[in-house]
User: Fold this.
Amino acid sequence: MSEELNAEFETAESGVSNVYPAQCSSLRKNGYVVIKGRPCKIVEMSTSKTGKHGHAKVHLVGIDLFSGKKYEDICPSTHNMDVPVVKRADYQLVDISADNFLSLMQESGDLREDIKIPEGDLGAEIRSKFESGEDILCTVLCAMGSEMVIATKPNSGK
Assistant:
């Protein structure tokens, strides 16, 4: 038998990409786009008129979903840009470990302990609500392989 037919594959991915292409002119404010390799939320967008033989250009300003940094990009309106696949999920906060990782329970009852407590005010708010005994849900945003808690709300589904 030939070498090709005996190939072994170590891992199998589902083949799902974490970005998809979209034409620049179809992007909208408050939508998502990848600028300089980072997933961003579009906060400002303007289109310039075409030149004598040129393309209309789209000027995008986006805020990084995870770091909050501002990114800008200009691209022809007919070209494609990557749009990140963004997922949000609510998890019930069960515990905060000594090394600042959150224990979050999914709807199915499975525990996740791989998300760090966020920096700044939100992290302090989560810690104070947990220590006072409040039952809270943490909203986790997931895009391009990164995950972060972006909000909390009281858990009313008891």
Summary: The mean pLDDT is 85. Residues 26 and 77 are 8 Å apart (CA to CA).
